[in-house]
Amino acid sequence: MARNRSIRFRKLRKSKEQMDLDITSLLDILVILLVFLLKAYSSNNIIISIPKGITIPDSTSQSFNNAGVIIQVSKEKIFVDSQEVVDYVTNPEGIEIYGDGGRLVTPLFDRLVQVREEIELVKQQANIEKDFSGIVNLVVDKEIKYIEVKRVLYTAAQAGFKSYKFVVLSQEQM
Amino acid sequence: MYTLPSRRQKKKRDDKLNLVPILDSVFILIFFLLLSAQFIKLFEINSNVPIVSSKSPPPPKSKKEPLSLTVEMKKTELVFLTGNNQIELKKFLATPEGDYPFVEVHNFLIELKKKHIDEHTIIFEPDEDIEYEKIVKLMDAVRLLEKTDESIYKKDEIGNDVPLEFLFDDIIFGNITS
């Protein structure tokens, strides 16, 4: 007890006091960060992945994306919901890619029909009365020639997808 | 001389707000926002599948011939056609670099929209060697009315003037079956 009161141990007593950290500047930073993040926050729940090798074009469009099957088209490959269906360069299975007089991409058609059947089966099992939307989101590389786009559009139409949504990049970036 | 600390001194001390729980919640909020943040803003341009039918088309509701606006995209030019006989309406030459005069095209379509206010459809027929980026740029030029553009008004059901937001927003690719 005497030790606690003594002048000799005054310095020691002071150092035991709780140290206050000034966090005002940290809070300022956090608030600014929060504002930027809230600005960038999109309430749209649709996740569209852009595979390597695809640069999507800029657009002034402000229409939000709709849920649907995603077809990603790069110069070398075609994906359906990020699953590779066509590889023009290696063509590992040596399959014939084009059909119907060169208008149809056969592996893509097969996959789209399969996806459509899966969607309809799920709807039947879940007793969903809503009709099949037939929406296909197209993530296409900006340098691709129209002939490739045309084949994809034709294939999607043949597989029963009636509405094309071309995914574009907003020109108003953060 | 050593004196006991007075009670008055203790009272003068500032009561500091405990910011630790607030900071905790802010950090958690930032973590969730970072997880869900989409730094690339993606949008879409809508287009529908052209309907191919062997049946004859239904009789028109009015005597006025439909606009049937079609644009042929060629490497060197853009050709706008109209009517059932696809008569050439206007031609825009591309620059030597291969770019189309999108501003002029947009202004031409504004004038056309004023004359055909109820028309929404435009048929795209690009050549096979046209780049997708150029098609998207042309889609932008034909679809939207910019804020800086002259306003076009349409009468609604009650008779009020309503400003239009779009020019020809129903884009159809007419040559996908060819």
Q: Care to describe what's here?
A:
The complex is a heterodimer of chains A (174) and B (178). With 174 residues, chain A is of the alpha/beta class. Chain A has two domains: 2-40, no CATH class; 58-170, no CATH class. Helix content of chain A is 35%, strand content 20%. In chain A, the strands form two sheets. A six-stranded mixed sheet of chain A has the order 1-8-7-2-3-4, covered by helices on one side. In chain A, strands 5-6 form a two-stranded antiparallel ribbon. In chain A, helix 4 runs parallel beside helix 5 (146-158). Chain A is elongated, with a radius of gyration of 29 Å. Chain A starts with a helix and ends with a strand. The mean pLDDT of chain A is 81. By secondary structure, chain B is α/β, with parallel strands linked by helices. Chain B has a domain at 65-173: 2-Layer Sandwich (Nucleotidyltransferase, domain 5), CATH 3.30.420. Chain B is built from four helices and eight strands, in the order H-H-E-E-E-E-H-E-H-E-E-E. In chain B, the strands form two sheets. A six-stranded mixed sheet of chain B has the order 1-8-5-2-3-4, with helices on one face. Chain B has a two-stranded antiparallel ribbon with strand order 6-7. In chain B, helix 3 runs parallel beside helix 4 (132-143). In chain B, 20% of the residues are buried. The chains are: A alpha/beta (174), B alpha/beta (178). The interface between A and B is large, with 57 and 45 residues.
